[in-house]
Specification:
Layout (H helix, E strand, L loop, with lengths): L3 E6 L1 H18 L4 E6 L1 H5 L2 E6 L7 H7 L1 H17 L4 E5 L2 H13 L4 E4 L11 H8 L2 E4 L4 H6 L5 E3 L3 H5 L6 H7 L8 E5 L4 H21 L4 E6 L2 H13 L7 E5 L2 H7 L2 E4 L3 H8 L4 E5 L3 H10 L7 H6 L6 E3 L5 H13 L1 H18 L3 H11 L11
Parallel strand pairs: 1-2, 1-4, 2-3, 4-5, 5-6, 6-7, 8-9, 8-11, 9-10, 11-12, 12-13
Helix pairs in contact: 1-18, 4-5, 5-6, 9-12, 10-11, 10-16
């Protein structure tokens, strides 16, 4: 009889992470059936998507409140379907606000629950760990300092590394990236990444454009790359260019190609988030900058535990790259911070070594490590099978 694994993955990043895990599990248990909520990459790996993971994408508190009824109804429908024909195991990939409610009810029925990607309890809302303990049989952690937080609370947890560290080369090929983007090998190149979400681009575009203008005045001939993930974010950025009266700036707006843009760049201006970790794995000098609504920023400041918001600094436990947030993120401050990297070759070399050490620490063959834990909870695969 084949093993049945239910999964819920949130957004594009969860879809990618889950697809690698499905492939790793399928290689070791070929008859396993995977089903639940997922995306196109999961489906390509053999997943039966009852609902698309795009339905779980919410952007901020307001959007979450607007869609609460819709998401709640979908979650209840999924729970009813899973309880009618219980899976051998449930894997939640990120999306904690959606998944933890579901995991607790499944675990109460004796179904083991594995949560892949720890919520950021080390950054804010640490009290969530009590609810996690009631809902999660085992937590899979992407960062090395996370398992101890769970083990101290009596929650089994394993460090599996970060999948990006497995994918990115230790020594990025800047020359090849420049060839792909048709850039001169000796050009000064700066990549500007104002975020992947529409709200981020709205908040950051004008400031990034003003900083770009300063850079072009200080460094004639500089090439500025702006990779944008969607048509909507591209339109928002182009509108911001028009509003700023800056159609003449030497900006190249790219549709996607964020990794190539950062690999090719001498420096990166980036919103906090996964892109900042990608920049670190690419060993790039960077400045992290972020803006959000005033009330949202005040709330975050009151609930935050760490002095940093950028993953490179959080993972290094040190201010290895500048963070300019909210009112500190002026065009002059951003341009000056980028110029400091350009002027200090020793600092750039030290950063490359720091980020190389981080890369090695995060490179753990994530999908296989995660599969090892999952298999340990499947009775048919010699696991314990207890929730």
């Amino acid at each position: 009889m084949s093993v049945r694994i239910a999964m819920v993955a949130g957004e594009t990043s969860g879809d990618l992470l889950a697809s690698h895990l499905i492939s790793a599990l399928s290689a070791r248990l070929p008859d396993t059936r995977f089903f639940g909520i997922g995306g196109p990459r999961m489906q390509s790996a053999g997943f039966d998507a009852w609902w698309p993971c795009e339905r779980l994408a919410v952007h901020g508190y307001v959007d979450a409140l607007k869609r609460y009824r819709e998401l709640s109804a979908m979650r209840k429908a999924l729970l009813a379907r899973l309880l009618k024909a219980p899976p051998d195991l449930f894997i939640a990939v990120d999306a904690p606000d959606f998944n933890l409610w579901l995991e607790r009810r499944l675990r109460d029925r004796g179904i083991p629950t594995v949560h892949f990607v720890s919520p950021s309890i080390w950054a804010w809302r640490g009290g969530r760990i009590k609810g996690i303990g009631r809902a999660v049989t085992h937590m899979l952690c992407l960062f090395p300092f996370e398992p101890a937080l769970y083990e101290n609370a009596g929650i089994p947890a394993s460090y599996v590394g970060h999948p990006l560290a497995d994918v990115f080369p230790l020594v990025p090929d800047r020359g090849a990236a420049r060839e792909r983007l048709h850039l001169h090998e000796n050009a000064l190149v700066v990549a500007l990444l104002p975020g992947s979400r529409e709200s981020e681009v709205r908040n950051l575009a004008a400031t990034y454009i003003a900083a770009a203008r300063l850079l072009t005045e200080r460094h004639p001939g500089v090439t500025l790359l702006v990779p944008l993930a969607t048509r909507e974010t591209r339109l928002l950025f182009e509108q911001a260019l028009y509003d700023a009266g800056a159609p003449d700036l030497p900006l190249r707006i790219l549709f996607g190609h964020a990794v190539d843009a950062m690999t090719a760049a001498d420096m990166v201006l980036v919103a906090s988030g996964t892109a900042s970790l990608e920049a670190a794995l690419l060993k790039r000098p960077m400045v992290i900058s972020y803006r959000m609504g005033k009330w949202q920023y005040r709330l975050m400041k009151r609930m935050a535990y760490l002095p940093w918001v950028g993953l490179p600094n959080i993972l290094c436990r040190d201010t290895v790259v500048p963070e300019l947030l909210q009112d500190d993120a002026t065009p002059e401050a951003l341009a000056n911070a980028l110029d400091r990297w350009l002027a200090d070759a020793d600092a750039r070399a030290a950063l490359v070594q720091r980020f190389t050490d981080l890369h090695l620490e995060l490179r753990q063959n994530t999908a296989q490590r995660a599969a090892d834990v999952v298999l340990s909870y499947l009775p048919g695969a010699g696991g314990r099978g207890a929730a």
